[in-house]
Amino acid sequence: MRALAVAATAFAVAWCVTWCYCRWALRAGHLDVPGARSSHAVATPTGGGAGIVAGGVAALVATMAGGAVHAEWLLVLGLALLMAALGYADDRRALPVLPRLLGQFGAAAAVMVCALTVAGIGLGGAGLLLLPPGLLALVWLNNAFNFMDGIDGLAASQAVFMAGAAAWLVVLGAGAGDSALLLGGIAGAASGFLALNWPPARIFMGDTGSQPLGLLLGAATAVTVARGELSLAVWAILWAAFLADATLTLLHRAWRREPLLRAHRDHAYQRLARRCGAHRPVTLGCIALNLCWLLPLAWLAHRMPRLGLVCVLVAYVPVCLGVLAVLLRDGRASAGGSSRRPVK
């Protein structure tokens, strides 16, 4: 019951703040105007991730009202607020790549130091070896989530799935501690925003939402693994849909010698949305993939850790093949140069 109360509180606060922000953004002209590389056709308020942030803060307050929250989660949520501020600045006035990367690496460094400390490894010996790959992994997870926020409802529904599934699996193994409550709260906050972001979206989260969500989910991976609540295999499976598309799209663009830092709409999910002529079928398809394929495998990896690697391979092979099929089928027709209009 306590977990449901925290999630419900986060949902209500996120929905209210997002609704109010949407009305303000319309009056203030804070809109995402469609361009050549957009996947939408109508100018839409952006920066609605402020509602998710408010819901996350509400979840923290509700969790602390019923018990203690460990320092690692306080650090993670504090860093998420900083990333939200950086994302909001980027939404209002596009920031250069360097300040964004510095912010991401700084947050990732703090998370890794905290996770290594919680795990009892520290920064000596093995800690020094784990720190660089951990930094790169967290920064990539943050950016991968940001890259996948390109059509209505996709990123928000993915956040609901990942945080909700992780909370459920933590409860199965360790009970309703602060990790389960806060992950459930993140899922509730993302759900409150999703109610207004469901296709056709009334508001976009922007970097104000995608940056803190990417950090939160990446940091939750590090913290729960360090605390022994979830395994790396479980999280790899939960990340599969977004990691496969973001990573293979980047490699595909590198293979075609296209600028990697230039904005584009070449991701498999964006190509599928153009084929369908709408965002909703793709978002629903990703939800179905998560619930019918990835969640059972994550549960199996959680219950039978010895099968973790096998479950990861079983999860990724068909997802990666599907993404590659979409990327290679479109082949030479660059999405950026397509004459087709953005889909609704």
Concise synopsis of the structure shown:
With 344 residues, the protein is mainly α. It has helices at 2-28, 49-65, 71-92, 97-118, 126-147, 154-174, 178-197, 206-226, 232-238, 240-255, 268-276, 280-303, 308-330, and strands spanning 31-32, 44-45.
Structural description of this entry:
The chain has one domain (2-337). A two-stranded antiparallel ribbon has the order 1-2. By secondary structure, the protein is mainly alpha-helical. The chain starts with a helix and ends in a 14-residue tail after the last helix. It is globular. The protein has 13 helices and two strands. The longest helix has 27 residues, at 2-28.
Write the layout of secondary structure elements.
Blueprint: H1 2-28, E1 31-32, E2 44-45, H2 49-65, H3 71-92, H4 97-118, H5 126-147, H6 154-174, H7 178-197, H8 206-226, H9 232-238, H10 240-255, H11 268-276, H12 280-303, H13 308-330
Antiparallel strand pairs: 1-2
Helix pairs in contact: 1-2, 1-7, 2-3, 2-7, 2-8, 3-4, 3-8, 4-5, 4-8, 5-8, 5-10, 6-7, 6-12, 9-12, 9-13, 10-13, 11-13, 12-13
